[in-house]
Amino acid sequence: MFEKIIENVTRCIELTEEEKQSFTDLLDCKAIPAKTILLREGEICQFEGYIHKGCIRTYYIDENGFEVTLYFAVEDWWVSDIASFHEQKPSRLYIEALEDSEIYMLTPQTKDILLESIPKFERVFRMLVQRNLTTLQNRLVNTISKPATERYLDFIKVYPSIPQRVPQYYIASYLGVSKEFVSTIRKRLSNK
Question: Per CATH, is 1-117 categorized as 2.60.40.3080?
Answer without folding.
Answer: no
